[in-house]
Amino acid sequence: MTAATLGTALLIGVAPATADTVSPDLDAPAPVSTQQLASDASRTRATVAWDASSLQEVYAPADGFYSYAPSVVRDGDTEWIWTCHNDEFRVIKDHIYLTKIVDGVVVDSRSVLQASAAPAWDSFHVCDPSVVAGKFRYLGVKYSLAMFYLGNDLDASAHNQIGVAFANSPEGPWIKLPEPIVTFDRADQWGVGQPTAVMMPGKPGTVLLGYTQGDTSTRAYVTEVDLKKAESFTTTTPVQLPTAGLTGTDGAADYLNGFDLVFDKKGDQFLAVREQHPYAFDNPWWIGPAVQVVTIPKRDLLRGRGTWAPVGDVNESLTGFDRNHNAGFARDWKGHLAAKNEVSVVFTTSCSSLPTIDDQDWSLATCDSLYSYDLWSIDGALNRRR
């Protein structure tokens, strides 16, 4: 988590009304100087050399359905991809689907986590999955998998909170913790969501959880969640992540949201794939044109300091699509790189449309954008620099 369409702090109600749609951030950081950007670039810790020939479609849902914000586990010739997905034809109500791919062929795709019955906190949308393997226990039962997810109780992009469910098989059944683990009180603001989970080295029951918060501004945090006894889970004080070094598609300083983390053990660093801004002006205007891969030393991320190093963009010049958004890494079961020296990004694409001189009210801008969401992937070599 994936990773959804948060770009702002204030809800304006633009379509699609999934749990992740909000307006552009009003408190994005101020531009940095050319000297600072040059200094940041000089500290680049890695670059990604994309292999354009690896670009391929991963999953295309049927007509009238959407799929985005992937959490991807790659294990040999098998991929498990959990996504935010609708379950009824042209009905915008988010489920979490699991799509299983073997040797490049989709062998199964189904809903594995649904909204709870009202008045539960997650009684409308469930979205933005992030799955990791560890040693968890809930009500005396041992579980090997944890899925963090966004949920809400409104038919709106508001009052989002983060919960967790447990299973011993990728397909489930997934058993939910009944209350959220990251809470948000206000029903008139976006809330917290877009979780991304990585197992803490040496702590098989503790997860490093990253997430986005949107209220009066948009920002990102990490916290450690102890799930060794989930009914009495604990979390550490959230650490706000830095934004220094992040750049938008316009070259200006950028803010952080809609990101997925992966741990690079060999480089002792984290990589993030994140939404780039500004968002587009044509339809769909609530998603970005590109995602950016960035790195930061582990010690800096855990302390909320330091500077991100941009190492590779996934954009139109690379993919041929003018919308590349809601991306996730292919990871192993612990949330580490699936291959030691390779980065694989699974991203969402979309159609787009512009008004014309005869279409001043955009009534003819008929790109059915939400229902064009499907998943593509691209691989690249990770070249570390010391």
Please outline the major beta sheet. 8 strands, mixed
Percent of residues in β-strands:
35-45%
Radius of gyration: 19 Å
Annotation field: number of helices = 3
Determine the oligomeric state from the structure.
Answer: single chain
Overall mean pLDDT stands at 88
Low-confidence stretches: 1-19, 21-44
Shape: globular
**What is the chain-wise order of helices and strands?**
HEEEEEEEEEEEEEEEEEHEHEEE
According to DSSP, the number of beta strands is 21
Q: In percent, how helical is the residue content?
A: under 10%
Describe the structure in your own words:
This protein is mainly β and 386 residues long. The protein has helices spanning 34-42, 298-303, 316-319; strands spanning 46-59, 67-75, 78-86, 94-102, 105-113, 125-138, 141-152, 161-167, 175-176, 191-199, 206-214, 218-226, 234-235, 239-240, 259-264, 269-275, 291-297, 309-314, 324-331, 342-349, 374-384. The chain has an eight-stranded mixed sheet with strand order 1-21-20-19-2-3-4-5. Strands 10, 11, 12, 13 and 14 form a five-stranded antiparallel sheet that branches. A hairpin with a 6-residue loop joins strand 10 (191-199) and strand 11. The longest helix has 9 residues, at 34-42. The two termini are 29 Å apart.
